[in-house]
Amino acid sequence: PPEPVNQILRLRAATKVHEQANADSTEVAELEEGSLVEAAGAVDLEGAPPEGGWLLIRAPLEDKLDVMSDKPLEYQDGWIPITFGEGEKMVERTELQLGHKIAARVFVETHPVLDLLKKLPRWRDGELPEWMRAAVAEIYTGKIGGVAKRSRFIVQRPSGAMPERVAVKRAMIVLPKERARQTTLAGLLGLAASLAVGLSIHGCCWAQGRPLEFGLMAWPPLLGWVTLVLVFLTPVTIGPSYLFSNSQAATACVVA
User: Fold this and answer.
1) Nearest partner of 152 among 44, 76, 45, 64, judged by Cα
2) pLDDT at position 80, please?
3) Dihedral sign from CA coordinates of 236, 239, 245, 249
4) Fewer CB near the terminus (10 Å): N or C of the chain?
5) Taking 80 as the threshold, does the pLDDT of residue 215 lie above it?
6) CA 155/CA 98 separation, integer angstroms
7) What is the DSSP string of the chain?
């Protein structure tokens, strides 16, 4: 596929955006360290940096997004110096670029299970572990469509999706391979829970003297159930959970 017209860069230091490639020109914006900006995709900052020591960039103006929109994003064009300090490079190319397929995680404000856990003495006066919040986080798949203020990537989703746009930081973005691994792990945890319950029930029955060779609690029905779950049901449930962007907790419950 053709390369995007622009590339996404991250600032390594705070700087000011000038109207012209001159330090004496009007300042049109001020950017913090870590801010994301766009620049022409043809610019090779490593091999052939622009002459004159200045780089033309597009600084994002979007902060509070219209989540149900696909209108063009607003930017402020301007110039920033290529280096700072003792000749260190001002910007670096980010791992994620325009058009990359990713999934954005959004932590929910309230959830029945999390609300119940917050009532336990251990977390009553503190924050829940991040992995708990991540397990029930909503997942929105889409493509990188631009950048926003506060060092956020904009995830553009298909028209009519709910929502169509999401702005998140890099820590809240999951790549396809990573999401597939997380979904598979969640499915296996659900499988382990299911097997533990089934084996425990049969074990209790055997401990009470129920026969092993015949009856509903015998080992042949158990073996057939385990085979059915391992070979057929688990793969059939994990796949759709990935396609429909289920959370990790939802995937584990579906498989279990």
Assistant:
1) 64
2) 95
3) positive
4) N
5) no
6) 10
7) -PPPSEEEEEESS-EEEESSSSTTSPEEEEE-TT-EEEEETT-BTTTBPPTTSEEEEEEE--SS--SS--PPPPEEEEEEESEETTTEESEEE-SS-TT-EEEEEE--S--HHHHHHTTSTTTTTSPPPHHHHHHT-EEEEEEEEEEETTTEEEEE--TT-SSSEEEE-GGGEE-HHHHHHHHHHHHHHHHHHHHHHHHHHHHHHHHTT--SSSSTTSHHHHHHHHHHIIIIIHHHHHHHHHHTT--HHHHHHHH-
Tokens for 173?
Answer: 């973005």
CA distance 96 to 167: 14
Give phi and psi for 140, each to the nearest 5.
Answer: -120, 115
> Looking at the predicted structure, is the pLDDT value of residue 2 above 60?
no
Angle at 140 between CA 138 and CA 146, to 5 degrees: 130
Residue-wise over 138-161: b if at least 16 C-beta within 10 A, else e? ebbbbebbbbbbebbbbbbbeeee
Angle at 129 between CA 133 and CA 193, to 5 degrees: 70
Token representation of residue 155: 């995830």
The C-alpha angle 212, 218, 220, rounded to 5 degrees, equals 115
- The three-state DSSP-derived secondary structure of 47-105 is CECCCCCEEEEEEECCCCCCCCCCCCCCEEEEEEECEECCCEECEEECCCCCCCEEEEE
- Chain segment 223-246, per-residue pLDDT in tens: 888 888 888 888 888 988 998 899
